[in-house]
Amino acid sequence: MFTLPLPIKVLPIVSIQIPTLTTTELPIPERFGRLYDLAYNLWWSWDESGADLWRAVDTQLWDRYRNPVEMLGAVDRATWQRLAESESFADQYANTVRRFDAYMSAKDTWYERNHGTGDTSVAYLCAEFGIHSSLPMYSGGLGVLAGDHTKSASDLGVPFVGVGLLYRRGYFRQQIGAIGSQQNLNPILDIARLAVRPVASPTGGHLKVSLDFPGRVVKAAVWVLSVGRVSLLLLDTDIMDNDPSDRPITSMLYVRGREARFCQEYVLGIGAVRALRALGIEPAVWHVNEGHAAMSLLERIREHVAGGMKIDEAERAVRSSTFFTLHTPVPAGNERFDFGLAEKYLGHWPNSVGADLDHLRHLASSRKGDSTMFDLGALGIGLASSVNGVSQRHGEIVDRDWSHLLTTPGYGITNGVHPATWLSRPLKRVIRETIGADWSTSLIEDPKTADIIRDLPDQEVWDAHQNRKDVLSTFAQGRIRSQLARHGGSPDELRSVDRMMPSDRLTIGFARRFATYKRATLLFHNVPWLQAILTNPDRPVQLVFAGKAHPADQEGQALIKHIHELAHSPELKGHVYLLEDYDIRMARFLVQGVDVWLNNPRPPEEASGTSGMKAAMNGVLNLSVLDGWWIEGFNGKNGWAFGHETDISDHDKQDAEDAIALYQLLQEQIVPLFYDRDDSGIPLGWVQLMKEAMASSAGDFSSHRMVADYVSKAYVPLGL
Ligand SMILES: *Cc1c(COP(=O)(O)O)cnc(C)c1O
After folding, report:
1. How far is the CA of 449 from the centre of ligand 1 (A)?
2. Ligand 1 centre and the CA of 547: distance in Å?
3. Nearest-angstrom CA–CA distance, 403 and 90
4. Which of 106, 221, 594, 595 could form a disulfide with 509, with the two C-beta atoms 3.0–4.6 Å apart?
5. Alpha-carbon span 58 to 67, nearest angstrom
6. Which atom of ligand 1 is nearest to the CA of 599?
7. Residue 9 C-alpha to ligand 1 middle, in angstroms?
8. Alpha-carbon torsion 108, 114, 115, 121, what sign?
9. Could you tell me the maximum CA-CA distance found in the chain, to the nearest angstrom?
10. Gap between the Cα atoms of 472 and 544, Å rounded
11. Ligand 1 binding pocket mutation candidate from 512, 582, 608 (most atoms within 8 A of CB)
């Protein structure tokens, strides 16, 4: 029906009839049988017709689960009966199925138009994929980026297959306690309730790949997640075949123990190659996205040697089809292990390729002569024919810091975000009505298309934004209320939440991982000054924060506590909110529903940053230091830049000066502009900036543009 690198067979979908409800108890009317296909393809998550259909099945259940596979298992007989009798549902169902089929079988995709059709593909290996909040397989920017990359590869028709790990305990969910301490929850996910399906092995049964571990074999089962036209293979060691001590290897994303982490990345790297081989997929290009998957390169060298090549030939062959992307600006940010650990698991590798242990040492050492660490970033860089950073500045940093390992100069391919995922519904509607159904591709194919956005009527843009502000306000109140209830709040206290986060105020958002370099508390440098800005009764301002700190990061957790305390202090109460459990879903509410997106990392530590792109696309104005993508994104009329552009070794001084610059900008420009309204209440000057922010980001910082760049600069030159 549609073109994939190769059709991936899946076992009959037994699991969709969620264990608690079997088909005999729950007859899904045959006429709605295609709901299965829709539920098992994440396409619905970025095409509104998909989400609308789920809501139409059962609004309450949908609000509870927001995961069609899980929801379908809970729909009762009476509901199916009602739907079977409803003409409007039948129409909606038929329309959505038609849209889905048209999407899946589209011939005239961007890739076909520009590069024709072929029978090769790109394999994209990554430790995390952020596709939707119902699949907690991501921790932050890297995963969401990989998810957006996958979605755009699907939209553009790129022959593409992703490989990652299936984490049955996902990444942790965050709760914030009554005194501001972060609590981490890792609930076990029921695979039967996720949109993943077991991949069938050619000989029948669930496909499993075998991995050599010291003195034993560990098996990984292969699952598939369908993301539009793209298949994402996910490896899972939590199966009966394995010893109970080996089963948890893939259970938690970025597991803390170093050896456990090594095992995870060993499964990812070696297992990815074996899973693709087992399915007969022969990628022309291997895109290794960050170091976590770099051990795949060792496996591919081994294969070539087993096939008769000498090791140097094998390394050349691997290099010529490998592309590596680095996401961290500091060499120390690479994934590194004690060499002894590598020796324990890879001790057999040198033998299998006719080399000695020193050769392995050499391949994975970040500096000449540094043989104590096994550096996966270095391994990837040294065995790739080309290496990129994720913004133009980051590309220069990669080239500077890694020149001793690079075979061709490092450069930047700037990140982007998936337009249909991140753009708000009302704005999507306005843009679709003016640009057309193919708006997201048009925006990257013809730069003039962006001018249409510059000409949108002010009222429509402002109304669409105000709608998202209202929605954010309701969402935030819900979060705060359930947190307060957990802390024992009385009914009256819970009721008072209705007055929080009013949507008519200037709202500034700051949401990202609480890594210290992101300086989450910079804005609180001078509390009295900040208080004066926030609490002016004529022009009130509110701040909303969200983010997780890595469970091992005490400093990050201290930042959360500090913000929690400030949010409850008499000075700032009612003007500062901290929402718990930041994820893709909350990110969408925030980047669509605040007015200003604050970003103040210590340069040059933000390699790219993508949340600001999501904000800009929605007409939310970036207020950011010139680092990462903002160096390219800022054009003087689409937001604001402030602060030092480099790290000035005296951090206290830098923070103090940056904070003053920030207060002055807020006081002198941002707050007055927001509250300067015309007769009908529209801030015309502000809306001007909003439209410029949207126009300057919707094409240039879309993941369609990013994937198109990867195709033309990397995938096609390497043989796709
Ligand atoms: C976009 C996104 C990120 C990355 O944002 P940065 O600006 O790079 O910090 C992290 N987490 C979630 C949930 C996101 O949606």
Report:
1. 27
2. 9
3. 60
4. 594
5. 12
6. 7
7. 33
8. negative
9. 79
10. 11
11. 512
Given the CA of residue 141, which atom of ligand 1 is nearest to it? Answer: 4
pLDDT at residue 280, rounded to an integer: 86
Q: Could you tell me if residue 422 is left (phi over 0), alpha (psi between -120 and 50 degrees) or otherwise beta?
A: alpha
438: which residues sit within 8 A by CB, 6+ positions away?
none
Residue 513 CA, closest ligand 1 atom number: 9
Q: How many helices (H) and strands (E) does the chain have?
A: 31, 20
Q: Sign of the CA dihedral 682, 688, 692, 695?
A: positive
Given pLDDT bands bounded at 50, 70 and 90, which one contains residue 699?
Answer: very high
For ligand 1, atom 4: residue with the closest CA: 141
Q: What is the DSSP letter of 448?
A: T
Q: In 343-421, at which residue ranges do the beta strands (DSSP E only) sit?
A: 373-375, 386-389, 411-412
Quick one: average pLDDT of 340-368? Answer: 94
List domains and CATH numbers for the chain: 14-105 (no CATH), 284-416+703-720 (3.40.50.2000), 419-701 (3.40.50.2000)
Q: Nearest-CA neighbor of 588 among 213, 181, 46, 206?
A: 46
Atom 3, ligand 1: which residue's CA is nearest? 141
Ligand 1 binding residues, C-beta < 6 A: 140-141, 144, 512, 582-584, 587, 609-612, 614
Atom of ligand 1 nearest to the CA of 511: 9
Provide mean pLDDT across the span 231-248: 97
User: What pTM was computed for the model?
Assistant: 0.95
